[in-house]
Amino acid sequence: MKPVVKSVENPITISVDDAQLTVEAGTTVAGALIAHGITAWRSTRKNERPRGLFCGIGACFDCLVSIDGQPNQRACMVRVCEGQQVDTETAKERP
Amino acid sequence: MSQKIHVAVIGAGPAGLAAAANALAHGAQVTCIDANDQPGGQYWRHRLEQPGRQPGVQPDSTGHHDWKTYLSLRAAFDAGIAAGTLAYLPNTQVWMAQQREDERITLQLTSATAAGTQAPASTLTADRLVVATGAYDRQIPIPGWDLPGVMTAGAVQALIKGQGVLAGQRIVLAGTGPFLLPVASNVAHAGGSVLAICESADLSGWLKNLKAPLAVPAKGIEGAEYIWDLLRHRIPYKRSTVITAIHGAEKVEAVSIARTDKTGAVIAGSEERIENVDCVGLGFGFTTQLELLTAFGVATHMDVDGSLVADVDEFQLTSGANVLAAGEVTGIGGAALAVAEGTVAGYRAALGSGQAPQQSEVAKELKTISRHRAFARAMHQAHQVPDYWSGNLEEDTVVCRCEEVTAGEIIQARDELKAVDARSIKSTTRAGMGWCQGRVCGYAASCLATCGDKHEAFAQSVANTYKRPVSIPVPLGEIADLEDSPKE
Ligand SMILES: Cc1cc2nc3c(=O)[nH]c(=O)nc-3n(C[C@H](O)[C@@H](O)[C@H](O)COP(=O)(O)OP(=O)(O)OC[C@H]3O[C@@H](n4cnc5c(N)ncnc54)[C@H](O)[C@@H]3O)c2cc1C
Ligand code: FES
Q1: Is this structure's pTM higher than 0.80?
Q2: Could A56 and B154 be called an inter-chain contact, meaning their C-beta atoms sit closer than 8 Å?
Q3: Where along the sequence do coiled-coil regions lie (chain A) (predicted)?
Q4: Measured distance CA(B346)–CA(B361) in Å, rounded
Q5: Which residue of B has its CA nearest to A74?
């Protein structure tokens, strides 16, 4: 079997908070963030703990993030697209 | 319009694809609804097909098994779309299914992602329904399992198969069951390091029941490939070993592991720490995605592995009129079983109401089903969810991830408020009340509430956690629309 992971073949640009990220077309928002080493993009309500991807398939709702102004989107279900704006809660709560 | 039977299939995984393909082959009009944006389900999740290329033409097969089966099911599926006999609704989630007075079935649909395509209609009515909604990784809480970088074993697999993304560079996999092997193998092929596979079972269970695995040689060959991969990549496979704690400040940094004895208790002095871990993949078998069926009130039972599953007859018919089930929802047993069940369900669903089903029409599949069910039973017996974990919880270990309810709070509710099943735990602590509606914590909350009892009270408690009014949280407007709509 050949290696499964390839380098970025079809780069597109998305915005995550104020930063521009070059990501692989066809990945999900969660996949794109993880490929950039970002593992958390939300804080929990009660204890303000960082959260990111957990089930990876849309069952757990841990990966919620705001995408193009729509809050509470499952980052593991939505594919990236050129010019997409992702807003993490972790950034909002930063002073 | 012709008198074709209209079959709705929920799920486009191995079971749903096979059901759709065979219902088409038997002359039905089919609608297949799937939350994902490409057919394949979990097993055949693959990289995004090239836009502009004809659907179904050689999607990426890297990291896959039984890919030929996928391509042939996919060819039938795509031919149905081309012929207008199959309507495929990707990116669409069924949030409620109801039986009408005339015994036809109405489904409520919504877009799976607000950013995705809108479902063409918000309701759909069909003569028959095949529920092939699959399963998700079962979890038990471990101190530190809520740290970023800790995810399900299935998530690690889905990231690689679906996107070519490696969840980390230094990964520890833990839980129980053969599923940890293909995940490890894919991580290694993708260039990641699997520092350890911690299998909680001692595997002696397989020896008690050798006949069942020997009757399914394909599983043996697949298993041998994985073992070869483990050896080649020097991946330590540790039996009777569990993760006792996951450490880190803002994300996972290290894990503690330990060996367990025959009773499942941690052996003192066997603890070890693995440092520089950036990802942990956890999976203790799977939990069926059954709520659309339980909402119907169809008969269910608790399977050997402690999962609630739908009762089906020989032709995959549930106790609900015109409602069939196939794949993991009838018992966790893998993709080959799901395909065989889907094929039978597709045949049965397409039959006219006066026609009696014939075994000879699906003889090969019925044999496959019986061999694979025996295999699954042997697998579940060899890979029981271990008992060690509840003794290992810290007071502040999160059990319900959504509502951040701790083990301490749940145990207090049990002991002081006599909350002895998941439902009363939910009303006293909010565990299971969040976004996921108890999907992730339902099993663990039931174990804690019933003090590890594995019988009646536990089964009842688990069954209660499946009672969800809707299968996913939907915008209130859609529920209001439903209430306003005239009754059919
Ligand atoms: C994350 C994950 C990864 C896995 N990877 C592997 C693997 O690599 N190898 C292996 O042997 N086994 C794997 N499995 C085990 C898996 O259960 C397979 O045995 C197989 O995919 C089961 O087939 P199925 O058709 O029953 O269900 P699935 O393949 O799970 O298909 C069910 C489909 O139904 C859809 N669905 C569910 N609910 C709804 C709804 N309400 N509305 C619309 N659509 C819905 C889902 O999106 C999914 O596409 C994996 C399981 C998980 C959870
Ligand atoms: S990670 Fe579970 S829903 Fe996205």
Answers
A1: yes
A2: yes
A3: none
A4: 12
A5: B113
